[in-house]
């Protein structure tokens, strides 16, 4: 590989532009093609957690020499396989590296790497080259913009982002940076997923997210859509006060039949929710429904869904069918009628609506379910 001039003219400016746009303090950053590690280390020194990946042995070794407490390096050439099971990152940096992947591995591979990055973060920084030689020096055809034409190279990159990342992504800013004598200018693009453009990794009411149902640990009590009878739950209205505190309480059904109105508002741990206990007894321990405290309560209290024996049997068959579908992978959480969750402090996630589906998915060990975010506590720290 040709030598890369490790500090270009506006290197400090570029690193600062990136640092100023990271989504939060303590961001987790993947720096692809980290070379001797200066950008990785710069961000690590600012208190971020930065991992540089570099395919060249010598550059990687140099980088290891400057690794700090929160910056580290990996000696690997990234490929689509590298990203397949990677965690999600606060930001991914592709600084002057896409054109080298183009040069060495071809345009299709470069596009694939960019696509994969788009699936593992909501924020990308791409520094693009304007000089044909950097794309062609290993025998690949030149890109379709005029050599060294900054406007044309910008348009080419933007077209690439549109095609590969899709409409979900937007260029937030572009900077033309002074580079070297041979290539006077390169372009730095800052891209974010548009739905989160202002605050990329933070949830908003109405977001549909996928999560492991094991992360849902509470039941909202009372459910907000029962409190605000005229307000659709999907509007995300939360009552004032500490609605995400954990109540020392158990329940069989929820507010409607257990005196929810006028009581303390909060979250009940699902370990105190008798419906989930009954599911575990039935499906994990093989108990009869008749032997669960939950069904005994249902028979005694007779909420509308269970107020005749026929309705009870129908409902139990429904739950058994749902469980089988979840276990066999036939059940999909999709469509307009997704379960709703509220997100409180300390990652407390409570069921707002869809308790049967979420609890059955938990009992069946489903890996991921789609849910819609209803209310968010202003101090929540839940990140996707
Ligand atoms: C032009 S340098 C850019 C360095 C740094 N990102 C910057 O802009 O300051 C490109 C670096 O990417 C590395 N590289 C190229 N293809 C790579 C790949 N598939 N995986 C990891 N590193 C790669 C090269 O070895 C080189 O160190």
UniProtKB/TrEMBL annotation:
Gene3D superfamilies: Vaccinia Virus protein VP39 (3.40.50.150). InterPro entries: SAM-dependent_MTases_sf (IPR029063). It comes from the Bacteria. This is Uncharacterized protein. It comes from Roseobacter cerasinus. The lineage of its organism: Bacteria, Pseudomonadati, Pseudomonadota, Alphaproteobacteria, Rhodobacterales.
């Amino acid at each position: 590989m040709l030598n890369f001039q490790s500090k270009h003219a506006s290197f400090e400016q570029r690193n600062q532009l990136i640092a100023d746009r990271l989504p939060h303090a303590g961001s987790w950053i993947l720096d692809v093609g980290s070379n001797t590690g200066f950008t990785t280390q710069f961000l690590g020194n600012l208190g971020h957690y930065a991992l540089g990946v570099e395919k060249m042995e010598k550059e990687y070794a140099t980088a290891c020499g400057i690794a700090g407490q929160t910056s580290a390096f990996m000696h690997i050439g990234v490929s689509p396989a590298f990203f397949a099971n990677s965690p999600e990152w606060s930001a991914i940096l592709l600084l002057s590296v896409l054109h080298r992947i183009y040069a060495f591995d071809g345009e299709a591979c470069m596009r694939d790497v960019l696509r994969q990055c788009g699936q593992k973060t909501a924020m990308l920084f791409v520094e693009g080259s304007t000089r044909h030689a950097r794309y062609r020096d290993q025998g690949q055809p030149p890109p379709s913009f005029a050599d060294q034409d900054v406007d044309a190279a910008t348009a080419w990159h933007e077209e690439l982002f549109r095609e590969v990342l899709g409409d979900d992504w937007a260029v937030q800013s572009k900077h033309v940076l002074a580079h070297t004598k041979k290539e006077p200018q390169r372009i730095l693009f800052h891209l974010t997923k548009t739905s989160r453009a202002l605050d990329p990794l933070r949830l908003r009411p109405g977001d549909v997210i996928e999560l492991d149902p094991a992360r849902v640990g509470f039941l909202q009590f009372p459910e907000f859509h029962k409190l605000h009878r005229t307000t659709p739950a999907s509007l995300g209205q939360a009552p004032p006060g500490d609605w995400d505190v954990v109540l020392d309480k158990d329940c069989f059904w929820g507010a409607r039949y257990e005196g929810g109105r006028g009581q303390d508002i909060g979250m009940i741990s699902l370990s105190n929710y008798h419906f989930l206990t009954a599911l575990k007894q039935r499906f994990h321990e093989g108990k009869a429904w008749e032997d669960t405290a939950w069904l005994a309560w249902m028979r005694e209290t007779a909420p509308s869904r269970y107020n005749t024996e026929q309705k009870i049997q129908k409902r139990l068959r429904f739950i058994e069918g749902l469980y089988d579908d979840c276990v066999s992978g036939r059940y999909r959480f999709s469509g307009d009628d997704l379960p709703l969750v509220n997100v409180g402090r300390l990652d407390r996630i409570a069921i707002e609506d869809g308790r049967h589906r979420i609890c059955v998915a938990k009992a069946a060990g489903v890996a991921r379910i789609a849910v819609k975010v209803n209310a968010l506590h202003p101090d929540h720290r839940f990140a996707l």
